[in-house]
Amino acid sequence: GAGVSQTPSNKVTEKGKYVELRCDPISGHTALYWYRQSLGQGPEFLIYFQGTGAADDSGLPNDRFFAVRPEGSVSTLKIQRTERGDSAVYLCASSLLGSDTDTQYFGPGTRLTVL
Amino acid sequence: GENVEQHPSTLSVQEGDSAVIKCTYSDSASNYFPWYKQELGKGPQLIIDIRSNVGEKKDQRIAVTLNKTAKHFSLHITETQPEDSAVYFCALKGDSSYKLIFGSGTRLLVRP
Asked: B89 and A100: CB-CB below 8 Å?
């Protein structure tokens, strides 16, 4: 079946602009996660959704970052007033139930470059 | 917060040899330990995972061992092949936690 998909695959923007990154999870998965991966490092947790609600947003670096999942499926990560330090690969993952031993399946990521 | 250290950062082996990557952690409440393989330009792909009630798990050429007392877990790849070349990440989840904490990655190169 189809895996997690993310669009766009690449996004180049200018400092100060607004960007939206989209994630389509595996069909039927109730839990959705966003991570950020800087060059040469492991992914770092940003936010976790169980259904439509953000159950844990403790990883969002500041209030310029926001994410939604209005219908419990597709999610959008929104970044306002982008900064050069926001450049990274943004990864989305989904899991069936969101339990503490649930397997998380990752998408290919969106590479964000802020000039 | 929880932290996981991964070693080595790079590993080069001859085709057919074994490769071992080790991770150590500090929170004894951690109960789920997956390993991911990431190829260039792609997202992490789960290759094997182990839960805290199991000491070892094997899937063909790949095995993971967990020592909860010493707080470390290791990935073992036998009979390595060039297509095993990638970056490998260990990760863990704490008790009642949903987020994965990742190690810093190991770049594995298998020389033909």
From this structure: no
